[in-house]
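Marked as duplicate of an earlier ticket. Keeping the data here for the record.
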Amino acid sequence: GSLPLTPLRVVTILGMVSVQVALVCVWRLVAMVRRGTVFSHAAFRYVDVMIGAIVAASLVWFAVTVLNAPGQRADPGVTVIMGGVGVAILGVALMVLVLRMLLAQAVARDVEAAQMQAELDEVI
């Protein structure tokens, strides 16, 4: 028979989907690095989706923590640890955000360098 969709099951499915989305984005970005096309605006789409997926994963994790908390009254340590993991996941999202800013600077410099090269070519 079919399994009933309990809140925990829905949350687990959402979590797995968001992790897979993030992994696909990482894979696409690695492919772009190999081709040398990562310093382009197309890369931002994947980075943005990845940040969204990681934030979604952390929200899903917090939801699990909240759903799990009533059962952990005897041992609040588990809830604290799970909360810490949720914060850690958000920390990863922040790191990706910082890397996105660095990528934005690199793309801007790449564009500037290309423009300067074009101007130099005109002069020569």
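See parent ticket for discussion. The mean pLDDT is 82.
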